Every structure is written in C-alpha cells, then in structure tokens.
Amino acid sequence: MVGATTILAQKEKALLDTSFSFLGERQQGKVRDFYSYGGQRITITTDRQSAFDQVLGLIPFKGSVLNELAAWWFYKTRHIVPNHMISIPDPNVLISDDCQAVPVEMIVRGYLSGATKTSIWHSYSQGERTIYGLKFPEGMVKNQQLPNPVITPTTHAAAGSHDERLTRPQIVEQQIVPKEIYEEMERVSLELFDVGQREAKKHGLILVDTKYEFGILDGKLVLIDEIHTPDSSRFWKADSYEDRLKAGQEPDNFDKEFLRLWYANQGYTGDGVPPRMTDELIVQVAQRYIELYETLTGQTFEVYEYPINSRIEIAIKQELGL
Fold this sequence. Notes:
Elements: H1 4-8, E1 27-28, E2 32-37, E3 40-45, E4 48-51, E5 54-58, H2 62-77, E6 85-90, E7 93-97, E8 100-101, E9 104-112, H3 120-125, E10 130-131, E11 134-135, E12 144-151, E13 154-155, H4 168-173, H5 179-202, E14 205-217, E15 220-224, E16 233-237, H6 238-246, H7 257-265, H8 279-297, H9 309-320
Helix pairs in contact: 2-8
C-alpha cells in the first residue's frame, strides 16, 4: 500500500497538463492531453480527476495507473477487437494510431446502480421504467444485478459539458453512426464486458459497468481511449457484495464511485462550483486506484517523484527518434 505521506508529498506537483511545442498543437480532454504527430496520436494521461463531466482536482499517480492499466487490458482483449495502441514509452504516455473517433460512448451496465444523472439508477429511482429505450422490471433495488448486461449509449461530451442519453433507434435513424458499425460496436462491447467480468471475478472483484470508445481506422472498428480502468469502470468487492446489498448498504468499491458519492454527500452532482477535495479524499482515491491496478495485474505499482514533464518529454522524443 502506498502511504498517505508519499501521496500528499506529491499533490502540489502532480501532472495538471502538458505543453510540448515540438509535437504541435495540443488538444485537451477531461483527463488526457492529445497531440497528432507524423500520422500518430500521442496521448499523455494527466493526474486530472474528473467526475460528473467536470475536472475536480489532481490525484498523484493517477495518470500512470490509468495508462498502464489500460495498456494491460488492451493486450488482453486484442483478440476481440483491434485497438489503437502502438507503444507505451512512459507510464503516462500512449502512442497510438490516429483514428477517426466515433461520437458515441458505449456504456455497458451489469447492475442497477450509479450516482450520476445519466445512470440508470437515477432514472429508475425517479419512477422511469423505460430508460435509454430499454424496459426495466418493477421491484428492483439499487445495486441489484440485471438479468443481462445492457448497453446505454451516450454522446461524447467535451470537457465542461455533460454526456447526453442516446438510444439505439436515435443512433441509427439519425445516422450518428452507420447501422452496421453500430451493431458491431454493440457486439464487441458485450464481448469485452464479458471478458472484463470474468477477469475481475478471478481477483475477487465485480465489474459493475464500464465505458468503451471506438474509432475507425482503414474502414475497420478499433477500440480507443481506455478500457476497464477505475475512471471508465466501476468495480466492487465480490466477497461482501451480497451482505451489503441485503443490508441496503453501498458495496465496497475499487473505483471513483467513492469520489462521486463523497461529492453527492456534499450536495454536488455536477452543477455549480464543486467542493474542494480534502487531503483525506485525495489519499483514498489514489490508494484505491493503485490497489485496483495491483489487484488486477498482479504487479507492484512503482511510485516516482514529481514533476514528470521532463521525463515524459525525453521518453516521447526517444520513441519518435527526435
């Protein structure tokens, strides 16, 4: 376990953003900085912490956890669908194929849960029974397993904007994505989720729900962004799930749902100015991310000293031969 002292010693120097003029113009997402260079895409995963479609602060070591865990999953799922990864020259850097992004996020859910306004539990608790065009039965309780995993697609919002619900008919009829491509996205998403759930189960975890993003490269569907990380997915501890469900308690989790619930308890769900993260919260989020990485991969997370901008720049230049 990485201690609180180690984490807090780095909080003021954690990676907020990058500025590498030798790569050209920078684009920014909620968590990642992007550059296009020589037909490739260079992605730097920062330590920015997002939730409710807002950037809330910085979590030391978070960027490298996300990047390295996503790479681990990319290797494990490449038999299902090609992905954009070319190399990982630095813990925070991904060099990938520069794909044309599909403007739809595929959210796969295995449980009736969630704290955000786009979650199916939020809609269900408000009395809705047809959500994202899907029918849900009466009498379900929060965090209950669904009969089968469901796909609830959303738009891909820019930083500072909110994702919006979509339905399968909307996507096809409005030609947001060609019908045959969307059908392949559905099939691949469910296969990826199945692999993720089975792998999580081996390590005493439940993969609750997740987000997949896709791109098109040479006319073919490609998995992009990240996969089965604590930013894009929710994981619960399997051994305590049933008892806590029966008691009406939130499951023990290994993801940023803990962060969402903390903010929700402060009365913040995405609108207005978010409360400032406490040191205790920063430590707990960092430790959960690191522990999930170690639990799934079986590898010890290597901590490092900040700032890391120079380290990243050297690694990129070496990889690109600059």
